[in-house]
Amino acid sequence: MFMGLKAPFKEGESVKAVLSFEKAGDVEVEFKVEAANKTEDAHKHHQTQ
């Protein structure tokens, strides 16, 4: 969850973040912002029939 955002993310930008893990400590990552509907096909296998 992202907290304290000043503005919404924009498609095409990169967002840097730090993930904090109990045993591994902090890990710096960078996310690429994509349209929400772009991943819809990739997640179809999660649906039950």
The dominant shape is extended
Total DSSP E strands? 2
Query: What's the main sheet like?
Result: 2 strands, antiparallel
Q: Report low-confidence residues grouped into runs of 5 or more.
A: none
Please report the number of helical segments. Answer: 0
Output the strand order for the largest sheet: 1-2
What is the radius of gyration computed over CA atoms, rounded to a whole number of angstroms?
15 Å
Task: Return the average pLDDT rounded to an integer.
Answer: 83
Helix content: under 10%
Q: Distance N terminus to C terminus?
A: 29 Å
* Proportion in β-strands: 25-35%
Structural class: mainly beta
N-to-C series of helices and strands: EE
Describe the structure.
The protein has 49 residues and is mainly β. It has a domain at 14-43. 0% of the residues lie in helices and 33% in strands. It has strands at 14-21, 25-32. A two-stranded antiparallel sheet has the order 1-2.
